[in-house]
Hints:
Layout: H1 12-15, E1 18-28, E2 33-38, E3 51-57, E4 60-73, E5 76-81, H2 87-91, E6 97-101, H3 102-108, E7 121-124, E8 127-131, E9 134-137, E10 142-148, E11 151-157, E12 162-166, E13 171-174, H4 180-184
Parallel strand pairs: 7-13
Antiparallel strand pairs: 1-2, 1-6, 2-5, 3-4, 3-6, 4-5, 7-8, 9-10, 10-11, 12-13
Amino acid sequence: MLYGITGIFFNRILMADYRNIGKLVSTFGVNGEMVLLHHLGKKASLKDLEIVFIEDRKEELLPYFITHTKIKSNDELYIKLEGVDKKETAQKLIQKEIWLSAEDFDKYAGKSAPISFVGFHLIDQGKDLGEIVEVIEQPHQVLCKIFIDSKEALIPIHEETLEKIDKKGKKLFVVLPEGLLEIYL
Length: 185
């Protein structure tokens, strides 16, 4: 099977330079086209984007060249990848996470979309808790993944916890419920 650029893997250290934008949710047609559900916060065709990265295994990304894309809805688009020419080949990629380089992410993500908080520092009552490495959107809140003492922590962001956003300084100021951080430590 062809994979755009074969044999190139990226480890967790390098994944900091990439941003998760969503996942492939279904195939479309018989020629390998798929539906990408994204969290870019705006209609996006990913016009002029040449490469996406697919999480092949935990913390391993494979690059794929884009053949073409087409907007389906506000948060979905059809995507065709080089080397994925059959529905059966595309089916193997369904439910895989899609990543962009940090540079491409900045071009395509909506400035007010929660996903744009990746790379911001989470500040709780003056203490820097760490850099947001992933944003998980839930119906009534957003979860920001950070690492505290090398342990993963999911911090809820909603109207009760969010104090202010400093976009220029890339900081998210929160007031977290007492005891929340102790769960992770």
